[in-house]
């Protein structure tokens, strides 16, 4: 073998190695781009209120900014996110560049009270639960990408060996250098057929005074075609079909989760404002009771009221003080719950725009015609039509049916035809003096294959089929359960909305009456015509009416949003 041949052989191996390496090692950017395209092709982001989908993490820079500005306690190196996480032994941190965002979160001035829209924008980028749901969708795209890859051309094996040998078993010792490279390719077709091919090269060179070398090239090819068991795209392509449907399920579930998430954050936002309103009401009630106590004490000194009325008034003022403390604690707890839900540090300061609650009360009106007045059957039809996640209930039943088909196929006899072809040959140290050998069709070895399995023992497969039938029945029950749960949720929200509207009318009248009672009680007390207990009861009734009216307004708005969410008609654009 000449030097030129050695150079050509080495060059071929290097080129082959580079090609294989480029194909097998993919950057995270390439994987992300392919996954995003899969999600786009499967319909993610097509709705009017859809967002630009990305799993890029924008929350770390916001957390770092808040922690630095407010001097918050750092619990661990992971507190500020991936960028500040120290590497472990052997970790190459270059991958982090593709995962760390280079911009701050939504532009919000945290020194000012936040509106509901600002809080929802903040939650969309920083909520840990929301980001986990997005990653679940993205992971399904990764699985589909890998499943599609499995039906492409696979590199089964690529090796390159270089060995120095010494053989002392013969009459004379021999030493030599042998080098070999091999690569195998295969392709699984959707029909169930399989094609394999491999190429191997051996180069042997004797190390002696009169050196000798030999080259051996060998190629093997095979094909197998199932005719009974394992035949057809509905059997062989099931992993790809399952991966495609999992992407559809993840997209549908995420679409509903976004609406559910908006309702959840809006409810927690208004619950904080409601708690803040209760604090203000409790504070005003406490101040009024302190004034009333002073007034009662002055009247008692004049002899128009007994001294026991002063003690009674002071006792109610003490109770009012305790209610104020409880209201403040309840407000702090609800604010911390909201912070945790939106991914905001719980020990950081956050203020909400109280005028949002005032606007909610100002904009409140009883509609003349409403969707919830329609027949239940019409509401159910609208929900089942609009909610993609509801449609997945039945599609999972179809998945269970396909699993039964696969189990039934496993019971069938196996009949596979195929063929193999082997061309060329290999070289070793003992054949270094032989001529080079190359693949030649007229000197190849060929085989035809007929494989038959008469399915005489299918006990395990029969048990497997029985389990899949049970899975199908469970899937049907699960579908029925989800359908009934959706109907129940719609019915519940309709009842709640109607109840809220009736309560609103009652609470408006109750609040007006409570205000009149307090005004009259104060006048009558000055005139000495009523006891202190009447004033205290009127004051407490006013506080209860104020809180009840606020609660009714908030409950009504949240229940309407939940109702629209269940029907699949909640427009997120009204929030963000």
Describe the protein.
With 576 residues, the protein is α+β, with helices and mostly antiparallel strands. The chain folds into two domains: 20-58 and 105-151 and 234-413 and 458-576, Outer membrane efflux proteins (OEP) (Up-down Bundle), CATH 1.20.1600; 153-188 and 193-229 and 414-454. It is built from 13 helices and six strands. It has a six-stranded antiparallel sheet with strand order 1-2-3-4-5-6, with helices on one face. Strand 3 (194-206) and strand 4 (213-226) form a beta hairpin. The longest helix is centred in the last third of the chain and has 69 residues, at 459-527. It is elongated and about 135 Å long. The mean pLDDT is 85.
How would the blueprint of this fold be written?
Layout: H1 3-24, H2 28-41, H3 59-70, H4 116-126, H5 128-150, E1 153-167, E2 174-188, E3 194-206, E4 213-226, H6 233-236, H7 238-301, H8 307-342, H9 355-362, H10 376-386, H11 388-409, E5 414-424, E6 445-453, H12 459-527, H13 532-567
Antiparallel strand pairs: 1-2, 2-3, 3-4, 4-5, 5-6
Features:
576 residues, alpha+beta, Outer membrane efflux proteins (OEP), 6-stranded antiparallel sheet, 13 helices, 6 strands, 13% strand, elongated
What summary fits the major beta sheet? Answer: 6 strands, antiparallel
Percent of residues in helices:
55-70%
- The CATH homologous superfamily of the largest domain corresponds to Outer membrane efflux proteins (OEP)
Structural class: alpha+beta
Mean pLDDT: 85
What count of structural domains? 2
The gyration radius over C-alpha positions equals 38 Å
As a percent range, the share of strand residues is 5-15%
Shape: elongated
Strand arrangement in the largest pleated sheet: 1-2-3-4-5-6
CATH class of the largest domain: Mainly Alpha
- CATH fold type of the largest domain: Outer membrane efflux proteins (OEP)
Give me the strand/helix succession: HHHHHEEEEHHHHHHEEHH
Low-confidence stretches: none
CATH architecture of the largest domain: Up-down Bundle
Number of DSSP helices?
13
- How many extended strands? 6
Question: N-to-C terminal Cα separation, in Å?
Answer: 74 Å
């Amino acid at each position: 073998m000449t030097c030129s041949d050695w150079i050509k052989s080495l060059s071929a191996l290097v080129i082959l190695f580079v090609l294989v390496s480029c194909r097998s090692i993919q950057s995270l950017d390439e994987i992300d781009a392919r996954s995003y395209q899969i999600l786009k092709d499967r319909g993610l982001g097509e709705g009017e209120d859809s967002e630009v989908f990305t799993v890029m993490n924008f929350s770390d820079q916001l957390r770092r900014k808040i922690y630095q500005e407010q001097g918050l306690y750092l619990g661990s190196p992971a507190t500020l996110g991936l960028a500040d996480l120290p590497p472990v032994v052997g970790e190459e941190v270059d991958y982090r560049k593709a995962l760390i965002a280079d911009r701050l979160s939504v532009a919000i001035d945290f020194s000012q009270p936040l509106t509901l829209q600002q809080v929802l924008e903040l939650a969309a980028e920083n909520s840990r639960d929301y980001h986990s749901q997005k990653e679940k969708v993205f992971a399904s795209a990764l699985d589909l990408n890998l499943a599609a890859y499995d039906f492409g051309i696979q590199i089964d094996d690529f090796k390159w060996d270089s060995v120095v040998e010494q053989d002392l078993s013969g009459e004379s010792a021999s030493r030599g250098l042998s080098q070999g490279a091999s690569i195998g390719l295969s392709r699984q077709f959707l029909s169930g057929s399989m094609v394999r091919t491999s190429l191997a090269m051996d180069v042997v060179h004797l190390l002696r005074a009169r050196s000798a070398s030999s080259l051996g090239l060998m190629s093997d090819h095979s094909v197998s075609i199932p005719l009974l068991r394992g035949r057809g795209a509905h059997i062989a392509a099931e992993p790809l079909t399952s991966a495609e449907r999992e992407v559809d399920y993840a997209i549908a579930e995420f679409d509903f989760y976004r609406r559910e998430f908006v309702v959840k954050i809006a409810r927690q936002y208004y619950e904080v404002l409601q708690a803040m309103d209760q604090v203000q009401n409790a504070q005003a009630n406490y101040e009024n009771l302190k004034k009333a106590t002073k007034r009662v004490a002055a009247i008692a000194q004049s002899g128009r009221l007994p001294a026991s009325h002063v003690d009674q008034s002071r006792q109610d003022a003490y109770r009012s003080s305790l209610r104020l403390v409880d209201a403040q604690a309840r407000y702090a707890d609800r604010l911390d719950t909201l912070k945790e839900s939106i991914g905001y540090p719980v020990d950081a300061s956050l203020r909400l725009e109280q005028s949002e609650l005032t606007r909610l009360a100002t904009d409140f009106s009883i509609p003349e015609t409403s969707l919830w007045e329609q027949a239940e059957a019409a509401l159910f039809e609208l929900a089942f039509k609009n909610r993609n996640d509801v449609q997945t209930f039945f599609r999972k039943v179809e998945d269970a049916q396909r699993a039964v088909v696969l189990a039934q196929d496993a019971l069938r006899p196996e009949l596979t035809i195929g063929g193999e072809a082997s061309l060329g040959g290999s070289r070793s140290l003992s054949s270094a003096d032989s001529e080079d050998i190359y693949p030649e069709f007229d000197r190849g070895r060929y085989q035809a294959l007929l494989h038959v399995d008469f399915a005489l023992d299918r006990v395990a497969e029969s048990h497997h089929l029985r389990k899949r039938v049970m899975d199908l029945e469970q899937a049907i029950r699960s579908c029925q359960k989800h359908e009934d749960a959706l109907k129940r949720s719609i019915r519940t929200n309709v009842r709640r909305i109607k109840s809220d509207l009736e309560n609103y009318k009652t609470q408006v009248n109750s609040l007006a009456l409570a205000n009149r009672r307090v005004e009259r009680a104060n006048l009558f007390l000055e005139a000495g015509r009523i006891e202190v207990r009447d004033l205290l009861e009127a004051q407490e009734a006013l506080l209860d009416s104020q809180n009840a009216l606020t609660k009714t307004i908030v409950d009504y708005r949240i229940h309407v949003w939940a109702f629209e969410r269940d029907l699949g008609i909640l427009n997120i654009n009204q929030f963000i």
